[in-house]
Amino acid sequence: MAEENEPKEIVPGNNRILFCYFIVVLILGLVAVAILVRAFDTAFVEKDVWEKVAEKQKRPNRLVLPGRGNIYSSDGKLMATSVPRYYLYIDFGADCYVNPGKNWNSRDTLLYSKRNGLDSLSIYLSKKLRNRTPASYRDYLTRGLKSKSRQFPLYEGKISYSDYKEIRKYPFLRLGRYKSGLYAKEMVQRQKPFGTLASRTIGDIYGEIEAGGTTKGKNGLELQYDSLLRGQAGLSSVRRVGGGWTNVIEVDPVDGMDIRTTIDINIQDITEKCLVDKLKEIDAESGTAVVMEVATGEIKAITNMGRIREGVYGETKNHAVADETEPGSTFKVASIMVALEDRVCTPNDTVDVGNGIYMYKGARMTDHNMNKGGYGRISVAQSIWYSSNIGVAKTILKGYSNNPTKFVEGLYRVGMNADLRLEIPGAGRAKIRRPDDSTRYWSKTTLPWMSFGYETQIPPIYTLTFFNAIANDGKMMRPMFTKEIMRNGKTVESFSPEVVKSSICSSRTLGLIREMLVDVVEKGTGKAVHSDIIQIAGKTGTAQIASGGVYRTSGHQVSFCGYFPADQPKYSAIVVIRRPRIGYPSGGTMSGGVVKAIAEKVYASHMSFNIRSMEADSLAVKIPSVKGGDLKAVEDVLDELDIKTDTDSLETKWVLASADEKDNIVKLKDVTIREGLVPRVTGMGARDAVYLLENAGLKVSLSGVGRVVSQSIQPGQRVVKGQTILLTLR
User: Which of 172, 180, 222, 508 could form a disulfide with 116 if both were Cys (CB 3.0 to 4.6 A apart)?
Assistant: First the structure.
């Protein structure tokens, strides 16, 4: 029975199945061969034909502009970034105006169309740009139409991309470029969120986009690191795909690298404000202030303010690094340092300066107090305290009149002419002449006048570097402007402090000089710099400005260079002010007053206390007054302060906040935002309130400071686009 159930072997009666398999394989083989033949034919035989067809399916490559790298402060605050800006033009010489076709005439449309004509366009442009009335715009565009200009400016200024998109939808212009003639020229504008702060040091760029699709630095760090900041343009093409055109990136653009500077925004802000306040007070032509970190040489603040118009000052030329001017009495410190180091004198040696007038080789030398009878016999140290030209000159003549080359070599030895290799393009160099230099005239009076700061040219930052070395135990540091180069937030290259000279003089001489600089402020011409808050050491300077070889009619340059705190120097600073018109020119009162203000404010802003060790204030508020606004920002602050919150099942990202003193908790409540309705912003800060209201289409006017206590349009009312709402803050 088992044998009867076993499957029987199937034996085909013929080879029909094998034949069918053979036929199928043969057909597939022929198809494969045909495909290969066709592919070969297309790839090699008909290659040129198909390449031409492919080219017809795409438009020429376009440059994809890279983003220019950003420049940041030392603590990561954005100081310079790029945004696109556009100039708008109409091509009134285009064929649609000059040779209109049968189906379209741009000239007639502009002149006679009710919906897309001149009157409608003029109204829209006037309302948007606000530089002309509608009637004036009508006349202006009519003149452009008659001129047949190929590049007639629709608007003289630059506009943002969002404004450009909006204007393209205005009457007539919405017909497109080939019917309206409207086109735009793209520019790149460098924006500086902190305005003038260190503006000349950061630098500027040229607005035009170069042929390679990148922008170019003009000056400052923008020029110094231009090759890193500019990036590399990419390529894109517009191809025909599926009956339409689509943009395809052929080569990705490479954005520029970012630069992190040494600038401290807080110190920079303090420095600029202190300088500008003094410039306005004394009505000076210009002023420079630089703050350097003693240990590293990092430039923490640098400002160069010049009079733009009466009472208004702005960043002008970078005087701090570019000016090669006679430094005046701050140079006396270097002269006496050389004399002390060469054992020409001691601080207690005396010199007779008489009545403040001294004739040498037929030239008249004076002290600033000659009208009061002079200082008589004083010590070498007092020559520095009182900034006596005669005292310093006689000391230097005593030691070097027979060998002035030795004095100049001493100046070189203490680093007055060191090559600082500054990062700012166009920076000047210290120029200290030598008696054996045939290219520069050395007269009989050069040595004494050089000793107190004339007949030499030294940029302010070189003087500051020298004084910084005094503060830094004799170690001269190269001024640093850049801390690191970054790409996508990651460090590519970092820069370390660099020593220019390991020691400018012996420790003995250095100690004597530092003692003199303290006494300048405590006993001498720098008494106005004395502070009850922080001890400052430094040297005053006043020099007449030469013009055409004449000193008497060109005004004065006053300066103060020093460091603070005097016992443990943290920062050094120099302030140079040119041509003050109010008050007696004084390095101590004018420039020294600025250094004092900077030192006190920097010291106050960097003070630190151990809060845990301080007694609790009986009037202290346990729960702070919290402004409403963005939920995440409010929660982040409260988390940082370790304050408990009651979220009350929040559903939106905007909240109002109220403090519950009883339970020591801050309660957060939803702010309902409905499209087309005025939101409630009372209790919020100004920034969040303005953001919400402007997003709703309202214009905002603010009165007061603090939080919003009232709004002129009640919450829930229907929004009228462009209506102004007044917010009262308290």
Answer: 172
DSSP character at residue 431: B
What total of structural domains would you count in the chain? 4
674 CB contacts (<8 Å, ≥6 apart)?
none
CA neighbor of 693 nearest in space, from 669, 729, 727, 661: 727
Strand runs labelled E in 270-398: 286-293, 299-309, 312-315, 350-352, 357-360, 363-366, 377-379
pLDDT at 185: 87
Q: Are 329 and 453 in contact (CB under 8 A)?
A: yes
What is the per-residue pLDDT across 421-453, written as a single tens digit (0 to 9) for each? 998 998 999 999 999 887 778 899 999 999 999
CATH of the domain at 172: 3.90.1310.10
Cα angle: 722, vertex 727, 730; to 5 degrees: 165
Mean pLDDT on 3-31: 69
Chain segment 343-374, per-residue pLDDT in tens:
999 999 999 999 999 999 999 999 999 999 99
Examine the domain organization and report whether 658 and 695 are in the same domain: yes
Domain match, 436 and 558 both: yes
- Tell me if 235 sits within 8 A of 251, measured CB to CB: yes
pLDDT band at 244 (very low <50, low <70, confident <90, very high): low
Give 8: exposed, middle or buried? Use CB within 10 Å, 0-12, 13-18, 19+: exposed
Q: What is the pLDDT of residue 666?
A: 81
Q: Which domain holds residue 118?
A: 62-260
In angstroms, rounded to a whole number, what is the distance separating the alpha carbons of residues 42 and 49? Answer: 9
Taking the alpha carbons at both ends of the chain, their separation in whole angstroms is: 108
- Closest CA relative to residue 261, chosen from 457, 39, 75, 523: 75
Token pair of 665, please? 């908790």
d(C-alpha 73, C-alpha 80), whole Å: 9
Residue 105 token pair: 């005439």
Residue 251 falls within a domain, yes or no? yes
Q: Compute CA distances 659 → 22, 562, 705, whole Å.
A: 89, 49, 20
The Cβ of residue 424 has, within 10 Å, a number of other Cβ atoms equal to 23
Helical segments of 621-685, H only: 631-640
Which sign, positive or negative, has the C-alpha torsion 202, 204, 209, 211? negative
Look at residues 293, 367, 79, 84 and name the one whose alpha carbon lies nearest to residue 203.
79
Cα–Cα distance measured from residue 468 to residue 571, given in angstroms and rounded to the nearest whole number: 8
Burial 516-527 (b: 16+ CB within 10 A, else e): bbbbbbbebbbe
**pLDDT for the residue numbered 401:** 93
Same domain, 226 and 333: no
Question: Is the domain of 164 the same as that of 275?
Answer: no
Instruction: Tell whether 613 is covered by a domain.
Output: no
Residue of higher predicted confidence among 102 and 632: 632
Verify that 309 and 361 share a domain, yes or no.
yes
Q: What pLDDT is stored for residue 619 in this prediction?
A: 60
Reduce the DSSP state of residue 318 to 3 states and report it. coil
* 2 pLDDT tier (thresholds 50, 70, 90): very low
Assessment of whether the complete model's pTM goes beyond 0.85: no
pLDDT tens per residue across span 381-428: 999 999 999 999 999 999 999 999 999 999 999 999 999 999 899 899
Q: Are 712 and 726 in contact (CB under 8 A)?
A: yes
User: Are 337 and 195 within one domain?
Assistant: no
Dihedral angle sign, alpha carbons of residues 497, 501, 506, 509 = negative
Residue reference for tokens 């830094």? 472
Average pLDDT, the chain: 87
Looking at residue 663, what is its pLDDT? 67
Six token digits for residue 256 = 């520029």
- Asked which of 571, 605, 639 is the last residue of a domain, the reply is 605
**Residue 13 backbone zone (phi > 0: left; psi -120 to 50: alpha; other: beta):** alpha
Greatest Cα pair distance, the chain, in angstroms, is: 149
What's the CA gap between 505 and 35, in Å, rounded? 87
Q: Which residues of 532-558 are buried (b: 16+ CB within 10 A; e: fewer)?
A: eeebbbbbbbbbbbeeeeeeeeebbbb
* H-assigned helices in 441-505: 446-451, 460-471
